[in-house]
Amino acid sequence: MSQDRLIQIKNKASGEVYWTRKNKKKVERKIELKKYSKKLRKRITFKEAKK
Questions:
Q1: Strand, coil or helix: 33
Q2: Which residue segments constitute the domains of the chain, with CATH numbers given?
Q3: Residues of 1-40 as b/e, b for ≥16 C-beta within 10 angstroms?
Q4: Cα distance between residue 29 and residue 4, in whole Å
Q5: Tens digit of pLDDT per residue, the chain (51 long)?
Q6: How many CB atoms lie within 10 A of CB 41?
Q7: What is the pTM of this model?
Q8: CB contact at 8 A, 43 and 22
Q9: How would DSSP label each residue in 13-38?
Q10: Which of 18, 27, 46, 48 maximizes the CB count within 10 A of its CB?
């Protein structure tokens, strides 16, 4: 996986982190994805954070 395309998405409530890729040429905004939280045991929104 290319390191320059790698971004970190984080949930502030639980503090959990997922790593994913982003096409920076096409997507200029910050990414928000719904992912499963193991701590909260439900789907919540994860927002892009700094590396």
A1: strand
A2: 6-49 (2.20.28)
A3: eeeeeebebebeeeebeeeeeeeeeeeeeeeeeeeebeee
A4: 16
A5: 678 889 999 999 999 999 999 998 999 999 999 999 999 999 999 999 987
A6: 7
A7: 0.82
A8: no
A9: TT--EEEEE--TTT--SPPEEEEEET
A10: 46
| Residue indicated by tokens 């928000």 | 32
Token pair of 22 as six digits: 């982003």
Assigned token pair, 26: 């096409």
| Closest residue by Cα to residue 11 from 36, 39, 47 | 47
Structural tokens at position 30: 């910050």
**Contact in structure between 14 and 45 (CB atoms under 8 Å):** no
